UniProtKB/TrEMBL annotation:
Keyword Repeat: no
Pfam families membership: Ala_racemase_N
Matches recorded under CDD domains: PLPDE_III_YBL036c_like
One function term, GO molecular function aspect: pyridoxal phosphate binding
PANTHER family: PROLINE SYNTHETASE CO-TRANSCRIBED BACTERIAL HOMOLOG PROTEIN (PTHR10146), PYRIDOXAL PHOSPHATE HOMEOSTASIS PROTEIN (PTHR10146:SF14)
Keywords, sorted A to Z: Pyridoxal phosphate
Domain of life (superkingdom): Bacteria
Cofactor section: pyridoxal 5'-phosphate
Its job: Pyridoxal 5'-phosphate (PLP)-binding protein, which is involved in PLP homeostasis.
InterPro entries reported in the protein's UniProt record: Ala_racemase_N, PLP-binding_barrel, PyrdxlP_homeostasis
PTM sites of type N6-(pyridoxal phosphate)lysine: 32
Protein name: Pyridoxal phosphate homeostasis protein
Annotated family: Belongs to the pyridoxal phosphate-binding protein YggS/PROSC family.
Length: 220
């Protein structure tokens, strides 16, 4: 299938799923597998939110597509020493996974940076992110950082999760997000949920995702 056929397919599925939930979901196109020309084709087919997971590729794509109107997401683990190179070019950062990183972002940012706290809901050892218990401790500290705005939570399900396990992980992320939002801490609105990828985006939307991150599905 062509990129535009894939886009039409995904957007139709998202629209149908949204009708069931009654909430809006933004589709983010993950372009880490492809070059700038294919990323351009994705934008021209209607996906205007674009994500990369590595600083160098992020900056490279952004430069090559600077003539297009794009909302830029950085989704991968960010090393503290690279924060200064990239953070002021990012519209949304999805992988805030340590308090030290939050301090570094606050220090280097020229304006308020929209961030998702990455949470490890599944407890998988290989996954980055705060455990639900750690969140209670770090939230008051993060809320003191005026340039870090916690717009929501981001989570990743294990690739081998069953349908039931997926539902459970997405539901846990949703209840955590709502519990944090209800605390109404300064700089922590936490109204959004970034979860769901090519394999599980429809299920994620049914469980409350407001951003889905889709890569491979667009490029095959
Ligand atoms: C690569 C990647 C995605 C997209 O994964 P696909 O399965 O290709 O849709 C989503 N989120 C993160 C953090 C990624 O690194």
């Amino acid at each position: 299938m062509t990129i535009s056929e894939n886009v039409a397919d995904v957007l139709t599925n998202v629209a149908n799923t949204e009708t069931q939930t009654g909430h809006k979901t933004t589709v983010i196109g993950v372009t880490k597998y492809v070059d700038a020309d294919q990323a351009r084709a994705l934008v021209e087919a209607g996906i205007t939110h674009i994500a990369e997971n590595r600083t160098e590729l992020f900056l490279d794509k952004q430069e090559k597509l600077s003539d297009l109107s794009i909302t830029w997401h950085l989704i991968g683990t960010l090393q503290r020493r690279k924060v200064k190179d990239v953070i002021n070019r990012v519209d949304y950062f999805h992988a805030l996974d340590s308090i030290k990183l939050a301090h570094e972002i606050d220090k280097r940012a020229n304006h308020v940076i929209k961030c998702f706290l990455q949470v490890n809901v599944s407890g998988e050892a290989s996954k980055h992110g705060f455990s639900p218990d750690e969140l209670a401790v770090v939230l008051p500290e993060i809320s003191n950082l005026s340039k870090v705005e916690i717009v929501g939570l981001m989570t990743m399900a294990p690739i081998d999760a069953s349908e039931a396990e997926l539902g459970d992980i997405f539901d846990k992320a949703k209840s955590l997000q709502m519990a944090i939002a209800s605390q109404a801490l300064p700089h922590i609105p936490c109204t959004e949920l970034s979860m769901g990828m090519s394999q599980d985006y429809q299920q994620a939307i049914l469980h409350g995702a407001t951003f889905v991150r889709i890569g491979s599905k667009f490029f095959k």
